[in-house]
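Record Ribose 1,5-bisphosphate isomerase, 318 aa.
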Amino acid sequence: MTDHRLAPDVEETAEAIASMEIRGAATIAAGAAEALGTQAREAEADSPAAFRASMRAAARRLRETRPTAVSLPNALRYVLRRMDGRNVDALRESVTDAVAEFVAQLDRAQEDLGRVGANRLADGDTVMTHCHSTDALACIEAAVEGGKEIEAIVKETRPRNQGHITAEQLRGMGVPVTLIVDSAARRYLNEADHVLVGADSIAADGGVINKIGTSGLAVNARERGVPIMTAAQTIKLHPETLTGHTVEIEMRDEAEVIDPETRAGIGEIAVENPAFDVTPPRYMDAIVTEHGQFPPESIVTLMRELFGEGAAEPWAEP
Ligand SMILES: O=C(COP(=O)(O)O)[C@H](O)[C@H](O)COP(=O)(O)O
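=>
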């Protein structure tokens, strides 16, 4: 295999995604696209073929960091598909333009879906959240900016407590927040008017892949009669599921669940740490995207329209 030098920023971004310094599906997508932009600027290629090969190598390095959020390969596909030109300068420019276009589109999509999601929230509503999703928060932000008073019940979201980030950002919007442990969710659903979550991937059958605990929350919400919606830009649609593939669920370090010393004190135990789960479409009321809201079962139509070309891997060695 040829050795293609990666820009230091590509390596740093890959490490930051793997260690979750850069996390959340939309943020990962933007980070990966921007790293491709740096690779394009810094690649020391003396031929178009060498330039293309170095871009593919950078994309492969970024791709291998986290397996579940499809926004990552979708971002890489978006940029690599637009790489075009007869010489290195033209190729470089096409990548730079594609990255800028992609990031602008992400921001626009989030704003647009925020307005759609906000329409589902009424003045005085209390919303229960899980994990930290910029798409979900965009809905609350749009509702608040529209003059609605919203309160939030925020699940801490073990093992990494991303609920704390959600709580902080909601406070920044002036939203009153009650933080609860995950196991208190069913009790507090009595006080919630909506459950609002994000997504890492959405499958062709409308299944929503999101932070572990989402599916249990959805089942409890249905039992309590509380509507649950997923806020997800279409970059979260998983094209490979159109052809029957399943979404890989990331298994993370056991030390996130229990520190090694405490574990050793307990004795020999198995520890498992899946980062995500799948909520079946029948437990989800709506998927809110920048193209409007959809019942989960109908998302496949949008997926075919936007990703009909399938799931090519433009980063593979030819
Ligand atoms: O599950 C998570 C984050 O998991 P992790 O912390 O393991 O990355 C978020 O709900 C989705 O990624 C959506 O986020 P966004 O709406 O910001 O794309």
